[in-house]
Amino acid sequence: MARPSRKPTGDTLSLSDGTLGLYLAYRVLLSVLLATLSLADIGPSTLGALDPGLTDVTLALFLALSVFSLILHYLRLLPSDSQVLLAVVIDIAAVTFLMHTSGGVQSGLGLLMAVSIAMASLSTGGRRALLSAALATLALMAEHLYSQFTGSALTSGYTHVGLIGAAFFALAGLAHQLSARVRASEQLAVQRGVDLANLAELNEYVIQHMQTGILVVDRQLQIRLMNEAAWYQLNMPDADSGSPLRAACAPLQPLLIEWLRHGTPPATFRPVSGGRDLQAQFTRLGDQGDLGVLIFLEDTAEVVERAQQLKLASLGRLTASIAHEIRNPLGAISHAAQLLMESDKLDDTDRRMTDIVEQNARRVNTVIENVLRLSRRDPPRPKPIALDDWLADMAADFLAARRLSARQLHIDVDPAGTTVMADPTQMNQIVTALCDNAVSHFNGPPEQLRLRIAAGITAQSGGPYIDVIDNGPGIPAELVGKIFEPFFTTRNDGTGLGLYIAKELSEANQIRLEYLAVPTGGTGFRLGFPDPRQRTHTP
Prior knowledge:
Layout: H1 15-40, H2 52-75, H3 80-101, H4 112-123, H5 127-150, H6 157-208, E1 213-217, E2 223-226, H7 228-233, H8 245-248, H9 252-262, E3 267-269, E4 278-285, E5 292-299, H10 300-341, H11 348-375, E6 383-386, H12 387-402, E7 409-414, E8 419-422, H13 424-440, E9 451-457, E10 464-470, H14 498-508, E11 512-516, E12 524-528
Parallel strand pairs: 7-9
Antiparallel strand pairs: 1-2, 1-5, 3-4, 4-5, 6-8, 9-10, 10-12, 11-12
């Protein structure tokens, strides 16, 4: 699986672009302010005192170039670095001329260069920040030398120029360090944002492709999250984020309300009639448990299958002991009974007793064979099975083996072409065991037995099914809960393992085998298969 990633796009302004825009806007405001003070004659008396005409020309050019630089920035006609350098050079030149027409270094206008140097350092950083400080210092020194040569500056001004130049370099260095830290913080924030976005996408991918169904509902019992597995398990409801829980699964909402009120244990429910049984587990969200509820949905067939694996492991050890401790002595008893029956000295009573020993030895051996066959069962290898042809072949073999006529077994598959996923061999064992159960428990003449095998798609759950129905005496209501227990039988010669083995094989193939009440009398069993569409969500 490829790890999702997100990258910041280039459509948004970076830190340098934002700083540059602020700096250019500041230059426009500064030029407008200085021009206003000069024209209205309300500024300091030193502003333009030595040469008012040059001051007005300088301010007009400074304002025009500042506005032009701002327009270039928004039109993006020049690279940012080039535009910053050009703006700093214009600022230094303008302030130098204004300083010269206002009394030199003593006017204090030279400090206006500090803002330009700082903004340039924040915008570009590195060597260009030092270059701006150097240009400003050289401009101050050149202006002072020129003023001293013309006789308008004091000799003591060199100290003042040196201190201002040193301040420019210090400011450039500090601004550069600040800019570096801001950029590092910005890069770290962007990287953290990308990592968080990637983690969120990864979590969403994992949740959506989990085989366990996941639902998140808020305090108003409205759905906030439902992964693909839950959507399939709930029979693909027409509900999404923001829908009430009852719209996705009406039987689940009362269980959640009961759990919220009384903390009841995990509950089993069936989303739709004829669907799969699901087990719901609830967990509160938030430190105070007030942010909603996380619901885990798990197919009970999968839970049973895991328990089945543990059961088979224990059964394997048990059957090994049975084979060694019981089967060998049983074989000796059966062999001795057969030899005894060959004796000419036995009367009819003794022969009857010997025959009873032989019959019961065979019965015990059948039980051992069934248990051994169950413990040695290979894992299911599911394949698509077209029920039309498969049931026809199975019925032909069953009728021939039990010596029944074709009119005694009727097959009905609707719709035609219904297909299930199961192990064909184990499926044959299951259906044959159900038909054998009908034959062995029929209490009338054998020729009056009628079997019906109906198959198709359930309208409620959308999953395939197979019904095996007979016209026998039926099962008393008080015994229905015991029919799938091992060694439970109502016949003296029965082993009580037929339905148990059918149940175990069904669960191994994720098939739900259950007793089916027949209104017209008789006994019915239903094999409920998973919806084939639910297998498509597994990665």
